[in-house]
């Protein structure tokens, strides 16, 4: 039985800020069902400690000496479904209100990575594969090779590194290398860890890991170009032969319109018409929209940032609201964008609503009540929203980039193929044109619309196929 340790900075069901947490909460569970020994390690953040620490098993307290860091880490353990979770506790580093974005992030996650490696020795658990995720864990492969040269248990570990979003790279001043990671400066001088006169955790992960993956095949190719490569494209082209794209899935038990406790009406592909009507009416009543089951409801559940393409929506807001639609937006992000959506709600009372914040149960109801789900992203490594939307019978309208291009197949009015709508060029005119085509299909060609909904709900968005692809890569390693 192959053993895999997932090392990440967040993971469901314990803590989440983005799609990384969904992957960590879903993929190990599926791998274990397929006969592997997949476990997870996370930092013990304040929010986790306050809610769960009393339920965890305290295993050991171990010394951590790396660079100028001289402290201890306490290891906790928990089980969730069929997955073992470990937690690294250090109150000074992790028991803060937020997860990231602190001036000492380089030191915090240097400590975390060293503590993970020391944890292997303390628990006598040396996995066949360490599967590290994003910049927070990018140094582990290098530290494993450099700092434990005479211990074959460390040297035999294979390393996979998954890039969830290349835009966040963990770039820090050069002295973090020696002061916080305890690594000789020659790795900066020879360029293997150097990036823009500092060091990059992500670049190091790409250089030192055995295999590198991204969360969709299209994104794995896009990041080899200057347009999407975030100045890391040359490094990625150097490792291109070891770079793979595997699309994410969703937890189809957590996201199941037939069982979802957040929904007032449950449904499947056979009962989707009645289910949509009931859930749409519930959302309309809850949010103060005009109750009407024949109006097309457009939903957005997203971080409201430039990456998500929401400026395209703001540009064409008057034209979009000129259509016979209702518009529901859930999320937070850039202040300017939030203000624009608040103005939209004021201007189009009972037709548009903006929920500023995140409400998980409401998000479930928006997926279930919406007819169309809008994701006009500038770039999207994979995207989770379009997968959930399809599973809930809301047709995604996306820009053809990254995982959106890999998972959403545009409606063909002649062959009736497709599971959503898409446009290619990143501009508001093409988005609006595609949105008008979708509205025309909804109102004027309902038979095709209903067929698209069936095809969307029939799309396999589970982790099964992706887990098989990861397993194949693990075996190759």
Shape: globular
Number of helices: 21
Main β sheet profile:
9 strands, mixed
Give Rg in angstroms: 23 Å
First-to-last CA distance: 14 Å
Describe this structure in words.
The protein is of the alpha/beta class and 477 residues long. 40% of the residues lie in helices and 20% in strands. The protein has 21 helices and 18 strands. The protein has helices spanning 19-33, 46-52, 91-94, 105-123, 140-147, 152-155, 175-179, 186-189, 201-208, 217-222, 233-238, 272-287, 310-315, 317-321, 335-347, 360-369, 385-391, 402-407, 428-444, 446-457, 464-476, and strands spanning 3-7, 37-43, 57-66, 69-80, 83-89, 129-133, 158-163, 171-173, 194-195, 198-200, 211-214, 243-245, 296-301, 325-331, 352-356, 372-375, 395-399, 421-423. Strands 3-4-5-2-1-6-7-11-12 form a 9-stranded mixed β-sheet, with helices on both faces. A 6-stranded parallel β-sheet has the order 15-14-13-16-17-18, sandwiched between helices. Strand 16 (372-375), helix 17 and strand 17 (395-399) form a beta-alpha-beta unit. Helix 12 packs across helix 16 and helix 19 (428-444) crosses helix 20 (446-457). 50% of the residues are buried.
